[in-house]
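RESIDUES AND SHAPES:
===
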Amino acid sequence: MKIIKYAQSCFLLNSKGINILIDPSSYNETSVAENLKDINIILISHKHADHCDIPSIKTIIKNNPNIKIYSNSEVCSALKEERIKCNEVKVGDTIEEDGIKIEVVKAMHGYLPIMKGRFVKGNNGYIIDDKKIRVYHCSDTICFENDIKADVVLVPICGHGVVMEPLVAVAFCQAINPKLVIPMHYDSEKHYMGTDRFEEEVKKTDLNYKILKPSKSIEI
């Protein structure tokens, strides 16, 4: 499986000829969305613009007219208003696409009073399983008890009350014990964190990790 990271929490996974794009963000480079070709599936965790950027999605659909979009009811309702077709899925559902299994799992977005009407009610995590590698995209989430099994964890680290901060993110991953951890959700100007604190914490453990800069990839 090939994993490419883009801005914030956006990743492109390629396996068995299937391209799965997760959480299309408002890309720093406007050309990125235009250059995303042969995308088969978009998975959207929740409706915040740094995970569900409508202009980017419209551009991607224009270049990939047969694409399938999956998300929760809140996102699907928002996309319907834009005349974008979305397949509604909820925690516990499984999507099967050409030998790829996608499990919809729990995610708990942190709450801040300043979010007011912008707090999301719907939020999905996703596990992409190609029968060789299980990749867990946590979405924006705080720490919660789980029995998730995954080989690769894409974990948010910016803290700020909305997701796990580095120490907690590392502990969360230790409980899962994956082969590889890739941090995400740390490069937004609004909730900037960077990766220094995450690296300080993860180096105290036996976890393997990889920092992927935008548009960089890794083969698993």
